[in-house]
Amino acid sequence: MSGPAGDALAADAAAGAITPQPAPESLLAPVAELIAVTEAARARVAVVTGAAGGIGAAICRRLSADGFTVACLDLREDAAASVASDLPTARGYGVDVRDAAAVQAVAGRVRDDLGVPWLLVNAAGVFSIQRITDLDEAEWDRILDTNLKGPFLTCREFLPGMVAAGQGAIVNIASTAGVRGGRLRAAYCASKGGLVLLTRSLAVDHGPDGIRVNCLCPGLIDTEMADWIRHDEPALARFAATVPARRMGTPEEIADGVAFLASAGGSYLHGAVLMVDGGGTA
Ligand SMILES: NC(=O)c1ccc[n+]([C@@H]2O[C@H](COP(=O)([O-])OP(=O)(O)OC[C@H]3O[C@@H](n4cnc5c(N)ncnc54)[C@H](O)[C@@H]3O)[C@@H](O)[C@H]2O)c1
User: Fold this and answer.
1) Which CATH superfamily is domain 24-275 in?
2) Phi, psi of 277 (to 5 degrees)
3) Is 188 an annotated catalytic residue?
4) Which of 91, 108, 259 is nearest to 171 (CA)?
5) Residue of 48, 49, 55, 175 to mutate, ligand 1, most atoms within 8 A of C-beta
6) pLDDT digits (tens, 9 = 90+) for 16-70
């Protein structure tokens, strides 16, 4: 305490009117631990791709609330900047994750602006519903390049800094479509299945470097990507009947899972495939 009240207390204490009591250890320890955890997270930088999307933006908000400085990356630069502008310590960047040179350039800018990232979250993604016989090569490439090559390129750029620091974490946003087949979405399933095994392979390679690599598989989540069903009440009701949670999930519920995977609570998770799907694949 400072000011007149603090001066009066100090004078009383000096005069022996007050015997200062040391705060009990048991009360101070949890507070000190909380401050240490918050300060450690505040010093950390998180990179989130797909930051302008429903799930990516929720992840940015959650990581910022947890004290991270957040680099918000998206193909839609203005939208990424807008997400960042609502957060206390964040910055938006435009990048196409399919483009190796662009990913390399933005990684350099993030390091220059904010420092070496401690956490990378790959949430950029695209979806399409098509029979494989109707799928042209360009559409196959768009899906595979965004959902699988993108995380390869970002991991390739950001991993060396984490390895040099001897610590860090990567969370890849895959999908329930990464662990089972789905109707009319072979390219999407192939891309997400590849992402699950990219995750597990990187966990094997880089766990010994102090880096935990995990993925999270959302079920149906209420974002633009679910526009094909989320405004169709009868279809949504049919979907809900197949899921133990009886509803679609929210972007915030995915962000909770990411925060957990990145936290000290997930310290023994390496190569985990966390299903956040309301029990849809249970
Ligand atoms: N919404 C769901 O039901 C659902 C279910 C399972 C998995 N997922 C996965 O979650 C992730 C986030 O999806 P969402 O629901 O927020 O979708 P969304 O469409 O709201 O957001 C996706 C974001 O990725 C960005 N993006 C697309 N291509 C990009 C590129 N080449 N480079 C950089 N950014 C690019 C888009 O601009 C967009 O902001 C995706 O990987 C998606 O596959 C979503």
Assistant:
1) NAD(P)-binding Rossmann-like Domain (3.40.50.720)
2) -135, 20
3) yes
4) 259
5) 55
6) 455 555 556 666 666 666 555 555 555 799 999 999 999 999 999 999 999 999 9
